[in-house]
Amino acid sequence: MHTIFVAEYFNVMITSPRINNLNFKRLRVHLGELRLNDQYMVAVFDEGIDINFDNFSEITDIIKSNFGNKPFGFISNRVNSYSINLSDANKFNKLFQNLKAYAVVAHNPITEKVFEIEEHFFKFNRKSFRNIDDAIDWVENTLANTQ
Fold first, then answer.
1. Which residue from 57, 50, 113 is spatially nearest to 85, judged by alpha carbons?
2. Could you tell me which residues come within 8 angstroms of residue 68 by beta carbon, excluding any fewer than 6 positions away?
3. Which pTM does this prediction carry?
4. Residue 128 burial (CB count, 10 A)
5. How far apart are the C-alpha atoms of 66 and 60, rounded to whole Å?
6. Which contiguous run of DSSP H or E holds residue 112?
7. Which domain holds residue 38?
8. Does residue 146 surpass a pLDDT of 90?
9. Are strands 72-78 and 99-106 parallel, antiparallel or unpaired?
10. For residue 61, how many other CB atoms are within 10 A of its CB?
11. d(CA 146, CA 99)
């Protein structure tokens, strides 16, 4: 039952009309699913994974090839529960200096608390939202105002 709920919720969230169009590429990677356009990406990471600097390399390559050195945004749609190795935060901070807008879509209070803890480690311009549309609006507006 839980798996069905997660799958249904995942489909509702990742196939939002705002990101399910021809302007977004859809990619399945070993950590989850990505949608990306020429300005930002939306990620839904798989249930139970542990994200660290090394296993993020596939996504790092996608970011580098898609955005290069230009400013970009990242939306983590946290539908599933997973962990991030916070001891790797400085490596991420140094590598992604052109990440100008990092949005988290928190679907429950626990995810919001995790976001608050991460704030002490990650130096990106970060903000938490309760729905994907608000996160997209913020990322697009932030990137539009980035020099």
1. 50
2. none
3. 0.85
4. 20
5. 10
6. helix 109-118
7. 2-144
8. no
9. parallel
10. 11
11. 11
Tell me the CA distances in angstroms from 94 to 10, 88, 126, one per residue in order.
Answer: 31, 10, 15
Which domain CATH number covers 96?
Answer: 3.30.750.24
What is the C-alpha to C-alpha distance for residues 28 and 126, in angstroms, rounded to an integer? 25
- H-type alpha helices, 40-108: 57-67, 89-95
Residue carrying the six token digits 């990106």: 124
Asked if residues 43 and 34 have their Cβ atoms less than 8 Å apart, the reply is: yes
- Note the pLDDT tens digit of each residue in 63-109: 999 999 999 999 999 999 899 999 999 999 999 999 999 999 998 88
Contact 23, 57 (CB under 8 A): no
> What is the pLDDT, as a whole number, of residue 13?
43
Q: What is d(CA 70, CA 37) in angstroms, rounded to the nearest whole number?
A: 13
The total number of structural domains in the chain stands at 1
pLDDT averaged over every residue in the chain: 86
State residue 31's pLDDT score: 97
Nearest to residue 124, comparing CAs of 85, 87, 145, 95? 95
At 92 the three-state DSSP class reads helix
Bridge partners of residue 76, in order along the sequence: 43, 104
Which of 27, 42, 52, 48 is closest to 74 using CA atoms? 42
Tell me which residue has tokens 């209070």.
109
